[in-house]
Design goal:
By secondary structure, this protein is α/β, with parallel strands linked by helices. The chain contains 21 helices and 17 strands.
Amino acid sequence: MILNQVRNTLRSKYLASVGLNYLRSNTTFNLNRTYTQGLSQSVINSLKVKSDLKEKREESLLGGGQKRIDQQHKKGKLTARERIELLLDDDSFVEYDSFMEHRCSDFGMNKEKYLGDSVVTGRGLINGRTVFVFSQDFTVFGGSLSSVHAKKICKIMDQALVIGAPVIGLNDSGGARIQEGVESLAGYADIFQRNVMASGVIPQISLIMGPCAGGAVYSPALTDFTFMVNDTSYLFITGPDVVKSVTGENVTQQELGGAKVHTQQSGVAHLAFENDIDALIRLRSFINYLPQSNRDNAPLRTSNDPSDRVVLSLDQLVPLDNSAAYDMKEIILATIDEKDFFEIMPDYAKNIIVGFARMNGRTVGIVANQPKVAAGCLDINSSVKGARFVRFCDAFNIPIITFVDVPGFLPGTAQEYHGIIRHGAKLLYAFAEATVPKITVITRKAYGGAYDVMSSKHLRGDCNYAWPTAEVAVMGAQGAVKIIFKGTKDIKEKEEEYIDKFANPFPAASRGFVDDIIEPRMTRKIICQDLDLLSTKKLKNPKKKHDNMPL
């Protein structure tokens, strides 16, 4: 219902604008012809150019024409311009290169040209902050990428780097424009190069709102966040026909590369939205958490949630039985501002939670083990998910708050054969290299190497705390006793002795590995105080060409 209302409103707005202005421009020129007698040729030409300019601008608004716009709407999708209209603040869009046309003359292409070609580019505002945006137009040659299409995208990316502002790509393209051959491939490479140069300098966000196949998939893969739209978007290297011819598999586009696949199984996409409107509205909210560039600090806004709020519910959330599960999200929501948490990759590697929140109005990145899933163990997927998020926060000056309840790395041949050592090292590396403020709270278990990995004091953690329920040890009591006292009859007694000695936060606190043992209810107040203290933190890693993390 809402989708149809917005669709009709936007459609009426553009059609009315195009029709009225077209009539005005033609009337103006025809009237001028009546009164042009006695005027110089240069004046007549100026009037004609002015009329042509209006006409061409209005022509570019229609993209591939009304018939193709209607087809786009029938698929439940907005047009390239409608998407920009919803994403940006009212009347803030400044378009670039609306008169550019493709230069291909092969295969009859010289007879079919559209102003602006198959992408709309420019800049605008989201909640008053500058962003650069490109929106691929499926109504023009299926949104296929031509050399001109690529040049338009590269131009806004270059300017975004100079200015220091995020780039948002609204992807809806059939891939390379085959008629242009290698020129189209060169265009992709030009974009890839800019994606790499912009990485860690300005936030890059890809929103997949239609097809994205072949080489086109690598630009979103190089950006910081990739979002999708359920049912209407897909990402894959080779389509169903090629898959069938090579492997014999019968698979649909959605089964091969739909939003469900990439948000739950592959981890390629970070989040999926219900439709175009939902996606664009949520994207407007998401961008508020991010700084404009790596030259800026994490965004800070006024908060109505007191920074010294005592959270009594936190005293009851962790069960006294250390084998009982609980929901770490409840701890996160109770601690942050106004329970406002933008979770990243919520349906992938659920044993770790990552996302953005605010503490006393300041953007923070949250990383937390989830005891409800696989007891919070770290595995390959959760390590990669966590590492990617930590590195983004570090690149863009966003403080990291880590909640720890981890019994270790997930054991088993599947994990070992697929490289848990190498992948687990990614999360370790990400926390170790991070120079942003790092605050860690151990809520319960912190066992073995996983304790070290989860932003421990040993990895330059700034403020490390433990709750009274915390246990920092090499492993759980049962496993440890079986190894230490192998063959001993009084195992039960030895287990109680081990628990009494290590199943508490005191050994870590006595060695300075945690700075304090705090009451859960005071967690929010303490973290907010620490963030204020660490706002002037200055820490640099050794100078080097680049690092060599275990990819």
